[in-house]
Write a structure and sequence with these properties.
Elements lengths: L10 E2 H8 L3 H9 L14 E2 L1 H15 L4 H9 L18 H7 L2 H4 L12 H31 L1 H15 L10 H23 L2 H15 L17 H6 L7 H16 L5
Antiparallel strand pairs: 1-2
Helix pairs in contact: 7-8, 7-10, 8-9, 9-12
């Protein structure tokens, strides 16, 4: 990672709209329809964090699929509708299968056949953000990570442990606290283990094949680093402005983990 990476903790409504390729008016309309809880900040200057932004992306996906705002609200309020409601417009949009269907076919098709329950809504959140930021190809490549975790429960358990350790590096932890380096080393070791599984399972080759498949489907597609229409922010800009809400200690741990990765597999 770029060691200067320092995303904001939250963004304004205009920044959220720009990142989501939406408009402040649409976001206000979603809030008036009850699709958002009250964001941080005052009513004159609301602030949107990571969870708010992910929710906004799902709302945009659902609205783009023709789902009425009232049905979107119901889908968020009750993500597991009764059988009688399954056929109601948008009622399944809050379920795992409903959200999976909202991802591009290029991404969703790669996840077919995985054991039931091996993927989580949080995984779909991550794939949605990748699809929005890097396009379907980038998200499909990231899906290989979740495929590996689905096939190796012990690796998923370790992933959860490391994620929890990183989340524990909150604002109460100083950047020079020994736990920062410890968590960085744990993240580095986990990523090496995951990379090994991906290589040994053939997923790395499958990832490479995705590029050929994408090029065959989209021979005139723009360069992967091009993002959005002319005048929109660049890919690097977009990633750097996402409201990840990382504490200084967590950012420092990420930097240290990146430094370990740059030193090679023997780093610890």
């Amino acid at each position: 990672m770029d060691l200067s990476f320092s995303p904001p903790r939250s963004v304004s409504i205009s920044e959220a709209a720009l990142l989501a390729r939406s408009t402040p008016e649409d976001i206000r309309r979603y809030q008036e329809a009850g699709l958002f809880s009250s964001p941080a900040g005052d009513s004159e200057d609301p602030r949107y964090g990571y969870d708010d932004f992910i929710r906004l992306l799902w709302i945009e996906k659902m609205a783009g699929a023709g789902i009425a705002l009232d049905d979107i609200r119901k889908a968020f309020a009750d993500p597991a509708p009764s059988t009688a409601d399954d056929d109601a417009p948008g009622r399944r949009a809050g379920t795992f299968d409903g959200r999976l269907a909202l991802l591009s076919d290029f991404v969703a098709d790669r996840l077919e056949g995985l054991p039931e329950g091996s993927l989580r809504l949080a995984d779909l959140d991550s794939l949605l953000l990748s699809e929005h930021t890097f396009g379907p190809l980038g998200s499909a490549v990231q899906a290989g990570r979740f495929i590996a975790l689905a096939a190796h429960p012990e690796l998923r358990e370790e992933s959860d442990r490391v994620d929890a350790a990183e989340e524990g590096l909150d604002d109460s932890v100083a950047v020079d606290d020994p736990r920062v380096m410890q968590v960085a080393a744990e993240r580095h070791a986990f990523e090496l283990a995951l990379e090994s599984v991906i290589e040994e399972s053939g997923l790395a080759e499958s990832n490479e094949a995705l590029f050929d498949s994408w090029e065959a489907l989209h021979p005139a597609a723009p360069d992967a680093c091009q993002r959005g229409p002319e005048g929109s922010m660049s890919l690097v800009e977009a990633v750097g402005r996402m409201p990840y809400d990382f504490s200084p200690a967590r950012l420092r741990s990420m930097e240290l983990s990146a430094e370990l990765a740059a030193q090679g597999p023997s780093a610890s």
